[in-house]
Amino acid sequence: MMEERYVIGVISDTHGLVRASALDALRGVDIIVHAGDIGGKEVVLALEEIAPVRLVRGNTDVEAWSRTLPETDVVEVGEHRICVVHDLATLGLDPEATGVSVVVSGHSHKPRQIVQRGVLYFNPGSAGPRRFQLPIGVGRLVLQGRQLRGELVRLEA
Q1: Dist CA 134 CA 136 (whole Å)
Q2: Are 110 and 123 in contact (CB under 8 A)?
């Protein structure tokens, strides 16, 4: 029997900027998670044209529409629980103890993926305006059965 395969698009820190290259990199995913600092409803609408979207509020998301967004979300896809939070420092749960296999965060604008105690910590970096000399990018999580891998996708400015 073939295990189901899911591809999750991961984006963060758009700060109101919808890059065509980011949208292109996310095409074909099953679901998109946005790890906060969205910056405007137009970002959400553009992402929703590609796939269903799950959002968390970032520290700069202060408009009325974004105040109702959760600070943390747990998304279940296939055999995986994915915890989404904007700032990793505010993570209010123990991923290992709660069966979370991936923690997605943003905030730092620095792309990073590291496995600690069996949990993948994944930050796609920023898809919004360039900050300092940091790269611009999005990410993908590829899940098949219990297997998972993260891909950091660098975008041209």
Answers
A1: 7
A2: yes
Mean pLDDT of the chain: 95
pLDDT of 1 reads 62
CB 43 within 8 A of CB 52: no
Q: What is the CA radius of gyration of the chain?
A: 14
Quote the tokens at residue 120.
Answer: 């993948």
Cα 157 to Cα 138: distance, rounded to the nearest angstrom:
12
DSSP secondary structure code for residue 4 in this structure: P
* pLDDT above 90 for 132: no
Q: Is 47 helix (H, G, I), strand (E, B) or coil?
A: helix
Tell the residue number behind the tokens 């991961």, with chain if given: 10
**In contact, 140 and 7? CB cutoff 8 Å:** yes
Domain 5-155 has CATH 3.60.21.10: yes
pTM: 0.95
Domain coordinates in residue numbering, the chain = 5-155
- Res 37: pLDDT: 98
